Amino acid sequence: MNKENFISNSVLRQIGYIVVCIILAGVILYNISTFLSGFLGAICMYMLLLHPLRWLHIKNKWNITLSVIVLMLVMSSIIFFPIYLLINLLTKKLSLIFTHKDEIEITLKNAVSKIHNSFGIDILNEKYLSNVAEISANMIQSIVNTTFDSIIQLLIALFILFFMLINYKELENWFLQNVPLKKNNLSSLNKKLKGMIISNAVGVPLVSLLQACVALIGFLIIGLPDAFSWFILMIFAGMVPVVGTALVYIPAVIVMIANGQVTEGYILLAFCILIVGSVDNVFRFLIQKKMADVHPLITVFGVILGVNLFGFIGIIFGPILFSLLFWMFNLYKLEFIDNEVEQKIED
Predict the structure, then answer these.
(1) What sign results for the dihedral spanned by CA atoms 125, 128, 133, 138?
(2) What one-character-per-residue DSSP string does 327-340 give?
(3) What is the predicted pLDDT for the residue at 317?
(4) Is the pLDDT of residue 194 over 70?
């Protein structure tokens, strides 16, 4: 029989080696899947902090340990301060709901009745309205629990990040020497991954912050009670796909109507739909196009995927995974298909 019909021993050994590596990687990933969000978070923060680290350590001659500690303290402050504000706010609201449960239900019934009389719309079913305080308390409790889970993952990410930054030169050398890709494709991978991370890890929260700032101006002008608290909630709600800030401004409108500010409530509703919604689209288009050319559908479906996989923190990681999948197809074409075409042309 012709030897060309057999697979060479070299190819068989390579296939066996790859299979063993995949099995071991699968076993490891399965057993540390709880920490996967933390690992992805460490990679994201590493990509964001690598350039500032080089600037401090190489250009300004700072000690590597001091440089890493300073950058991690800055990053931790940026991450945990908004989370602290959110937890503090939700804890106070949860206490208020439990203390004034009956009054809240009566007030909401009056507001819903006014809306029904004005527009003929029942925004809440009577069955749910009677338990609205309990439902709200459960929702807030769930958000608080999810936030604490995210904090644990962020602490894991910071722990991993410390060692990644301390050994960043060795990590880069290992990556360049062991990843089986061409140098130009490795450079493309680094550039694309950095762009996706900046677009999502920086762009998404920044868009939400800008949108919340515009909303805060409207809150103050219209006279929404406790406007700063609604502003904090608006920042986090703005990162949620599809519904977004409606999670905040619709309850805010109901609260205003319940307090007898009917006209102001309707003005607030119109302002949020027309102005805040438009501002969101404008900021998202300008900022994310500037940072990385990420299609809006990738962002939406990526967020849905990320939330299902990692919880709230998946708002950042989901679009990155989605974008990375499409880039991997492109990488396969560059690494193998285009390479074969070049070889045929040379032959």
Answers:
(1) negative
(2) HHHHHHIIIIIHHH
(3) 72
(4) yes
Tokens at 82, concatenated: 């908004």
Count of C-beta atoms within a 10 Å radius of residue 57: 20
**Tokens encoding 286:** 């300008």
Query: Both ends of the chain: CA-CA distance in Å?
Result: 29
Q: In 3D, which of 216, 208, 220 has the Cα closest to residue 264?
A: 220
CA distance 291 to 288: 5
- Residue appearing with tokens 């990843």: 179
Q: Which of 170, 139, 161 is nearest to 49 (CA)?
A: 161
Domain that residue 171 falls in? 36-101+125-178
Structure tokens at 81: 């301060």
The predicted pLDDT at position 205 comes to 81
The encoded tokens of residue 270 equal: 């119109």
Q: What type of residue sits at position 260?
A: G
Asked whether residue 309 is assigned to any structural domain, the reply reads no
Q: Tell whether pTM > 0.85.
A: no
Residue 219 in any domain: the answer is no
Buried b (16+ CB within 10 A) or exposed e, 260-295: ebeebbbbbbebbeeebbebbeebbeebbeebbebe
Q: Please choose, from the candidates 213, 229, 207, 216, the residue with its C-alpha nearest in 3D space to the C-alpha of residue 268.
A: 216
Indicate the pLDDT class of residue 82, thresholds 50, 70 and 90. Answer: confident
Q: Answer yes or no: is 85 within a domain.
A: yes
In terms of phi and psi (left: phi > 0; alpha: psi -120 to 50; beta: otherwise), the region of 166 is alpha
Neighbours of 338 (CB within 10 A): 11
Nearest to 29 by CA among 5, 194, 146, 21: 21
- Looking at the structure of the chain, the number of domains it has is 1
For every residue of 73-111, DSSP letters joined together read HHHHHHHHHHHHHHHHHHHHHHHHHHHTHHHHHHHHHHH
Average pLDDT value for residue range 55-61:
88
Name which of 99, 89, 24 is nearest 237 in CA terms. Answer: 89
In a domain, 59, yes or no: yes
Residue 275 is encoded by which pair of tokens?
Answer: 């102005």
Written as one letter, the residue type at 76 is: S
